Amino acid sequence: MKKCIALLTVLMVVIPMTIVVVSGCGGPSPQEAEAKFKSDLQNLTTAFQALGNPANLTSIDSFKSAWKDVEKAYDEVVKSAKDVKNANITALKKARDDLSSTIGSINSTQSLTQMLDTITEAFQDFQTALQELYSPVETNQ
Length: 141
Fold this sequence. Notes:
Distance between the termini: 58 Å
Radius of gyration: 23 Å
Shape: elongated
CATH topology: Four Helix Bundle (Hemerythrin (Met), subunit A)
Order of helices and strands: HHHHH
């Protein structure tokens, strides 16, 4: 009977500890989180720069397709920012929402050149927010 109780006690301690160890103990380390965040910011920067590629400016469809790549990279930044203590992506979110709204308002009867001023302003705001977010990560390395 004592052996059975001892075995149950050990199992009650070992099983939860095993689950915690296997689950990763609550997430990445601060260094891993910052490295992931930095990598995601680099990917977003690359996707954002591709948006301005002349090949993507030939049609609304190609531009919106390139925007989808920016959106995917942006989503990764948002996810990884949650694990970085001092990552404040509020300005980036606002700039992204503004740019998304601007891009979403382009219809097939308009050309990109007709919307160029509006797109450029939203584009610059997004770029500024991205650079401001990226700068502190660079200085922490």
